[in-house]
Design goal:
Elements: H1 2-17, E1 26-31, E2 34-41, H2 44-55, E3 62-65, E4 68-69, H3 79-92, E5 101-106, E6 109-116, H4 119-129, E7 137-140, E8 143-144, H5 150-163, E9 172-177, E10 180-187, H6 190-201, E11 208-211, E12 214-215
Amino acid sequence: MPINIDLRRTVLDELDWEPSINAGDIAVTVHDGVVTLTGFASSYAEKLKAEQVAKKVRGVRAIANDIEVRLSGRSERTDTDIARAAVDALNWRTSVPGDEIKVSVTKGWVALEGNVHWQFQKSSAYEAVHDLVGVRGITNLITVKPKVRATEVKSRIEAAFHRSAEVDAQKVRVETHDNTVILRGDVRSWSERQEAERTAWAAPGVTQVDNHLMIKP
C-alpha cells in the first residue's frame, strides 16, 4: 500500500509540474503500478499530455486514461468545421500523402482511413489532427502496406537496438511474423519500453508491434 501511495503522489506532482495541464481537474489512483487517470481535460491534446507525463514517472507499469474531454463554449466546433480543419492539417504535413487519407467526424470524434507505406506516415497523420480545436478523440484506421520482407525488418530493428543508448539490446528479443514485430524480454523503465516499441515501429514495412517487454526496475 505505501508503494501505491508514494507512486500516486509522484504522479500527481509530475502532473502539477506540467504547465499545459490543469492538474486540479485530474484524479489519480494506483494499484500495483497501474495508474488510472480520471477527471476531465479541456482538450484531447491535454488528455494525451496527461498520459504522457504519467508514463515518465519511474515505477509506472501501465496507464488507464479515463479522462473525459469537456470542451468549453469557445472550443465547440461543428463536425464540418473539424473535418475541414483536419483536411487542411493533413495537407500541410509533407510527410503525409493527404490524397490517400480520408477523414470523417462524428460528434467531435475523428476517424482517419486510407493506406500508407510507412508507420511514420500513419503516426504523422494522427499528430496533425490530435490537437485541433473541437476534437474529442481520434480513431486511426490508416493501414500500413509495406514493401519489404520480414527477415529484413528483423535485422534492421536489431541493428537499431544495438545503436541505441536508451535500449539494452542484450535483453530485448525481436521476432517477426509477416510484417508483425513481437518484442520480448526485460527493460528497466516504461520509457525504455516505449523507446523499444518506437524503434520497432520506425522500421520499414512494420504494420503491427506486439510489445511484451516486462518492466523490471
